[in-house]
């Protein structure tokens, strides 16, 4: 019968719904699939764990928005990683939650296809039975026949009766006994059969997954028949023909949980499997361990049910043989066999008699490798959780270690296992990639400690079954003469206790009362915490008696005993604390004793919970610091360590308000001495409250005196701090995040990076995943700090195209900056961005403002700050300082890049909102952050986002520059404005405020080079007049052997020339001489154009060999890094970001992406020249027309219409340049050559002049227009007045093909058609 789509969807949906409704089931499957990941995917385990945590958040949340967001985030994350069983299962759950049952079913079936063994045995065994196993009956019959054949041979060889069809006889034969009878060939045959069976099941799973997928994809118009069962017997090579008419198949299985393995299982059970019934039992896929106790129990029951001494099977020995095999040789004597059976019968009779007495099983009486969890320990009344017990030793963990497989073992036991030559996990049998054991699992160890505190020994109960920590069992209390005597002794001691209590409460003699206290204390130490005794001592009269001793006694031993007893009672009974706090003088008495040197009293003070105000008023700080500074062995053993209590009380003082400076004095004393190191030690405490308090104290110390940050960073163990984050409340979590954020504000960037790596990698949990989840629930004013730490951890790796951590962190910072309803969130976000710059003083203050002032040229402020912070390099530290500066610059570039590139400069919009705030603190922080990021735009590669910064911030910077009274603020705004003057649109916007800006620049002219450079651009005085410029020929080189000089470009101190034979030459000018430093010929044809990116790190060359090459120019020599095949001749190459534009051999303009795609623009025009500015492409055409194309939208605008006369001579536009918002074109006409100047914004013609020569190339400087002409001359025109000033003669009649100016406009380089290169000095 064929399966239907409805049945498949119903069965898969049932399993997935059960998984979603049962957290324990999900966690078990997660752990199983996580352990199955291959080593190649272990690097992705953190991302999969993040997906798991986010999915769990979606399952448990009641907020539909959070649910939908979490599911989308998880699905997006899983799709971006390689397919594996873990991700397949998670995706199937996501599809189920998003109401996509078909996708969920297909994803789950994919798990059965790729990892059938894991899917059927550990993930979804019930689903496997219902969907798959019902079709595998022929496989089961074949397996049973083969196994019966092997075991029947074994039974015959050992003298046991068996038939052909079943290995089950009157009694159950223990497979461990049969194993002892096997020879090597029989055991090997069984193992091969098991392996073959596994392979057959795997293959059939894959076949039927395809069948089910075909059904799910069927449109209902065709019938799909089930596939034939694949069956191969490896040993015989026989195939089994499937008979569908067979009614039933008799099989035997040896495992009560439906799993079979001939080596490990207890016995055989005959199970009838019907084709039309659900199959709940099937052969095993992994070994099953059996407890020796189970063997003893089963064998005892076997002998009871089959008492006949003639039954061979019933007379099998009850214990497992130590021999590897049974002797089946005919040479064995009858006497030996008879003696063996007699010994075994005697042993059984003795055991039968012992059944009437309690059985005590020692911890070393069982084989640890065969120990099962169903031992008597798990049957006790106070059973420890199974996760607290080592599977090897069966003891509660003392030093647990968790292997890479996820299994936890006692350290000594697993060390012994590994030292024995094993390299696998004892439980999972997976190969261990690293046999070096990890750190202790402190989380588990603390959980065990907490459980022990709640166990019967430490509770107020009188357990009937005392627990023995180092033994396997609970030994019941037996009624015996000894126990009666012991009880009588206890009763007598209780009577003595009553007498001592009476003496304490009624005696008028101090010495008698003191003696009573010492007796009570000794009795408490000897007998423990019986409820009756605790009740007797907790009565108010007794407590008052203890308090009288505190007031009256001067005996230190008595006072310590009294404090000890009150602390013990108060820690167990809140009524005792209530009794003590009813009278203020009682509390004051305890505090007075503590301040006089009775340091154990600090525990009682902690239990009394005095107010923070009283702690400050009582002036207890010195005494608390003394306790913290002492060793633990100097104190009497208390219920709480005195040091821990002191740290907590000290933390409450430090966290209080500081109205009169008392708290600051306490912090100074903590930092000045060794106390801070002792508090750092508390970070490793087993007590969570002590760890959290230590974090708060250290955080306050760093905030008050940041110089202690280096000590904390050097001494602190951060793994316990990170583990504390998981179980803490929101308040404590934020304290931990603030502590870690402050810790990475060291004055050395390399140290900060080291600490960040520790935070990222330490602990049992992924720090980044935990912070990402916390980011979704933190309060608004806490979000920026959490986001800042998360972003810093993400930046440890090189910025990737997509990072969930980075995206979420930056989105959070931007949203907080825009949140005007929460000024605290705004200031926190702005300060976080400032700290991301990465430079800090020794006190942890950000130095971004100081470094920006240094760039402006205000070195005085910089040097003053450095002197105060003592950061200037001294002798012997120069190299180290250079390394630190290099690391700081690398971090600064990386941080600025991810901030400004996020959502195309969205950060600038948020900073602009912050600058509008009515709070001066927010405005100041946003102003410095904005100045830094705008300044970094000039250093980073061009990302096309300067326009966003200009629109959002330029007017604000102009306003600050014009109105700021503070010199430093004015200088910073000038630095920001200097980043816009090289942008035509920015320069145009600034021009409207030219008068006020020039006035401010003149004030800074002598102080700042930035001001001088800006004045050079803006000033219209005589110094910028073209009349004062002079041109002088410096040098000339003949390169005619390389053909024409087709392209020239200048960069820094180098000149690059491209020649018609495919050669690129690199030149430098020294002492007015062109020096050739490198010659490369990798292009096979003429190099028509050279261009350099604005960032100045890459040179691109275009050639007629239909390729574009990218060259690295930051190295000593020019090196080709990439070759792009553009499949067309390249002329007039221009490059921007990830695309190139050039003129092909035919019509149009070709736009080629570096990814390989290309498209043709303006296909109706034959283009002669191109210019590219700010995403706008300008083209001069053969028909004398000029067009502008917006590359972002593809919009084409006509600036000058061309001629359409068919018989007229063509008048092409030979040269086209865009400079300072103007378009310059040189074109031929019937009347002659003309230079035209157009407005780039509205396309109006500003000016037009006639030229005497035909122009072939053009270069524009700040003051001049250079036009290379056909007759070997260069005409020099004044750009402002548009008048000819000079004509430069090249000395030949050839065409001037190309020209270039250096960055300082000091040198003009000319290339001609006869292969000459000339350099002219401009002064």
Shape: flat
- Mean pLDDT, to the nearest integer, reads 77
Bin the helical content: 40-55%
Rg over CA atoms, rounded to whole Å, is 43 Å
> What kind of assembly state do the chains in view correspond to?
single chain
Question: How much of the sequence is in beta strands?
Answer: 5-15%
Give the total of beta strands. Answer: 32
Structural class: alpha+beta
How many separate helices? 47
**Unreliable residue runs:** 158-177, 233-381, 456-489, 871-879, 1020-1028
Biggest sheet layout: 4 strands, antiparallel
Q: Termini distance? A: 96 Å
> Can you list the strand order of the major beta sheet?
5-32-31-30
What does this entry look like structurally?
With 1323 residues, this protein is α+β, with helices and mostly antiparallel strands. 47% of the residues lie in helices and 15% in strands. It has 47 helices and 32 strands. The strands form nine sheets. Strands 5-32-31-30 form a four-stranded antiparallel β-sheet, with no helix packed on it. The protein has a four-stranded antiparallel β-sheet with strand order 6-7-8-9, with no helix packed on it. The chain has a four-stranded antiparallel β-sheet with strand order 10-11-12-13, with no helix packed on it.
């Amino acid at each position: 019968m064929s399966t239907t789509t409805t049945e498949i969807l119903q069965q898969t949906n049932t399993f997935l719904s059960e998984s979603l409704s049962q957290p324990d089931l999900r966690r078990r499957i997660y752990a199983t699939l996580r352990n199955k990941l291959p080593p190649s995917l272990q690097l992705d385990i953190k991302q999969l764990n993040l997906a798991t945590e986010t999915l769990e958040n979606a399952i448990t949340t009641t907020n539909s928005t959070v649910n939908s967001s979490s599911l989308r985030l998880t699905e997006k994350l899983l799709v971006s990683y390689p397919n594996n069983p873990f991700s397949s299962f998670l995706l199937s759950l996501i599809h189920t939650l998003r109401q996509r049952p078909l996708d969920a079913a297909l994803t789950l079936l994919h798990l059965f296809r790729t990892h059938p063994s894991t899917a059927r045995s550990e993930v979804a065994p019930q689903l496997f039975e219902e969907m798959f196993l019902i079709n595998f009956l022929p496989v089961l019959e074949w397996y049973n026949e083969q196994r019966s054949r092997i075991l029947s041979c074994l039974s015959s060889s050992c003298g046991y009766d068996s038939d052909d069809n079943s290995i089950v006889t009157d009694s159950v034969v223990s497979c461990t006994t049969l194993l002892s009878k096997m020879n090597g060939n029989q055991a090997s045959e069984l193992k091969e059969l098991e392996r073959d069976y596994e392979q057959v099941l795997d293959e059939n799973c894959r076949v039927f997954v395809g069948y089910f997928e075909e059904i799910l994809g069927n449109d209902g118009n065709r019938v799909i028949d089930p596939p034939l069962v694949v069956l191969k017997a490896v040993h015989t090579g026989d195939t089994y023909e499937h008979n569908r008419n067979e009614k039933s198949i008799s099989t035997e299985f040896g495992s009560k949980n439906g799993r079979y393995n001939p080596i490990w299982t207890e016995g055989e059970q005959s199970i009838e499997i019907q084709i039309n019934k659900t199959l709940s039992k099937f052969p095993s896929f992994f070994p099953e361990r059996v407890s020796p106790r189970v063997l003893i129990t089963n064998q005892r029951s076997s002998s009871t049910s089959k008492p006949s001494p003639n039954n061979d099977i019933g007379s099998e020995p009850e214990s497992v043989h130590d021999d590897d095999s049974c002797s089946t040789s005919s040479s064995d004597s009858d006497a030996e066999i008879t003696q063996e059976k007699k010994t075994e019968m005697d042993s059984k009779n003795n055991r039968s008699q012992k059944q009437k007495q309690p059985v005590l099983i020692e911890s070393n009486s069982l084989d640890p490798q065969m120990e099962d969890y169903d031992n008597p320990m798990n049957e006790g009344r106070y059973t420890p959780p199974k996760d607290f017990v080592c599977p090897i030793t069966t003891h509660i963990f003392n030093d647990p270690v968790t292997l890479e497989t996820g299994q936890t073992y006692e350290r000594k036991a697993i060390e012994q296992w590994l030292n024995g030559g094993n390299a696998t996990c004892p439980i999972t049998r997976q190969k261990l990639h690293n046999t070096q054991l990890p750190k202790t699992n402190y989380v588990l160890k603390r959980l065990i400690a907490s459980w022990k505190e709640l166990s019967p020994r430490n509770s107020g109960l009188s357990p009937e079954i005392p627990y023995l920590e180092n033994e396997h069992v609970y030994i019941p209390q037996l009624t015996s003469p000894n126990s009666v005597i012991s009880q009588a002794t206890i009763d007598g001691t209780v009577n003595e206790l009553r007498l001592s209590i009476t003496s304490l409460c009624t005696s008028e003699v101090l010495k008698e009362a003191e003696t009573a206290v010492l007796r009570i204390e000794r009795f408490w130490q000897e007998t423990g915490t019986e409820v009756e005794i605790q009740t007797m001592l907790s009565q108010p009269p007794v407590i008052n008696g203890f308090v009288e001793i505190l007031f009256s006694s001067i005996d230190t031993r008595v006072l310590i005993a009294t404090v000890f007893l009150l602390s013990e009672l108060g820690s167990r009974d809140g009524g005792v604390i209530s009794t003590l706090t009813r009278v203020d003088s009682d509390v004051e008495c305890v505090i007075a004793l503590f301040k006089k040197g009775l340091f154990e009293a600090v525990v009682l003070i902690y239990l009394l919970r005095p107010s923070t105000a009283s702690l400050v008023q009582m002036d207890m700080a010195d005494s608390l610091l003394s306790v913290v500074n002492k060793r633990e062995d100097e104190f009497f053993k208390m219920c709480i360590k005195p040091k821990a209590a002191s740290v907590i009380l000290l933390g409450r003082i430090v966290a209080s308000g500081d109205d009169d400076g008392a708290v600051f004095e306490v912090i100074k004393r903590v930092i000045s001495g060794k106390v801070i190191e002792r508090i750092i030690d508390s970070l490793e405490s087993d007590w969570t409250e002590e760890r959290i308090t230590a974090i708060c104290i250290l955080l306050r110390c760093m905030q008050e005196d940041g110089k202690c940050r280096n000590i904390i960073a050097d001494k602190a163990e951060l793994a316990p701090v990170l583990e504390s984050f998981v179980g803490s409340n929101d308040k404590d979590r934020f304290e931990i995040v603030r502590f870690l954020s402050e810790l990475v504000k060291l004055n050395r960037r390399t140290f900060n990076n080291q600490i960040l790596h520790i935070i990222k990698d330490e602990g049992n949990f992924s720090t980044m995943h935990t912070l990402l989840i916390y980011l979704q629930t933190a309060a608004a004013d806490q979000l920026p700090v959490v986001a800042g730490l998360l972003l810093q951890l993400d930046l440890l790796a090189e910025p990737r195209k997509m990072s969930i951590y980075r995206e979420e962190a930056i989105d959070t910072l931007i949203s907080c900056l825009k949140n005007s309803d929460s000024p605290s969130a705004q200031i926190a976000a702005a300060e976080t961005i400032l700290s991301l710059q990465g430079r800090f003083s020794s006190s942890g203050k950000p130095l971004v403002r100081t470094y920006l002032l240094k760039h402006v040229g205000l070195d005085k402020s910089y040097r003053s700050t450095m002197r105060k912070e003592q950061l200037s390099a001294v002798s012997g530290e120069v190299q180290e300082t250079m390394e630190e500066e290099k690391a700081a610059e690398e971090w600064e570039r990386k941080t600025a890049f991810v901030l400004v590139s996020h959502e195309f400069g969205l950060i600038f919009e948020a900073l602009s909102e912050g600058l509008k705030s009515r709070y001066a603190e927010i405005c100041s922080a946003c102003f410095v952050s904005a100045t830094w990021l705008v300044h970094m735009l000039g250093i980073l590669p061009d990302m096309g986002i300067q326009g966003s910064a200009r629109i959002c911030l330029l007017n604000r910077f102009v306003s600050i520059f014009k109105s700021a009274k503070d010199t430093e603020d004015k200088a910073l705004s000038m630095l920001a404005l200097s980043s816009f003057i090289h942008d035509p649109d920015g320069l145009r916007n600034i021009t409207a405020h030219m008068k006020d800006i020039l006035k401010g620049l003149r004030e800074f002219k002598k102080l700042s080079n930035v001001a001088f450079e800006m004045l050079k651009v803006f000033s219209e005085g005589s110094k910028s007049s073209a009349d004062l410029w002079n041109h002088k020929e410096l040098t000339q080189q003949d390169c005619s052997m390389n053909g024409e000089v087709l392209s020239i470009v200048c960069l820094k101190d180098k000149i690059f020339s491209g020649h018609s034979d495919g050669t690129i030459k690199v030149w430098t000018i020294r002492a007015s001489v062109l020096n050739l430093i490198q010659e490369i010929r990798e292009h096979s044809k003429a190099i028509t154009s050279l261009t350099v990116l604005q960032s100045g790190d890459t040179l691109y060359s275009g050639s007629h060999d239909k390729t574009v090459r990218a060259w690295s120019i930051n190295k000593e020599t020019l090196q080709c890094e990439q070759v792009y095949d553009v499949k067309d001749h390249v002329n007039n190459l221009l490059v921007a970001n990830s695309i190139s534009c050039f003129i092909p051999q035919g019509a149009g303009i070709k736009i080629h992406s570096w990814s390989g795609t290309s498209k043709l623009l303006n296909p109706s025009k034959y283009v002669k020249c191109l210019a590219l500015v700010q995403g706008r492409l300008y083209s001069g055409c053969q028909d004398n027309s000029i067009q502008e194309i917006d590359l972002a939208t593809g919009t084409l605008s006509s600036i000058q219409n061309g001629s359409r006369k068919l018989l007229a001579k063509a008048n092409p536009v030979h040269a086209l340049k865009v400079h300072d918002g103007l378009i310059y074109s040189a074109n031929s006409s019937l009347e002659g050559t003309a230079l035209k100047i157009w407005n780039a914004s509205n396309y109006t013609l500003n000016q037009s002049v006639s030229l005497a020569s035909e122009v072939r190339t053009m270069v524009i400087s700040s003051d001049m227009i250079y036009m290379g002409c056909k007759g070997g001359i260069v005409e020099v025109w004044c750009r402002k007045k548009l008048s000819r000033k000079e004509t430069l003669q090249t000395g030949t009649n050839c065409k001037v093909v190309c020209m270039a100016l250096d960055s300082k406009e000091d040198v003009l380089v000319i290339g001609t058609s006869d292969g000459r290169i000339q350099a002219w000095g401009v002064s």
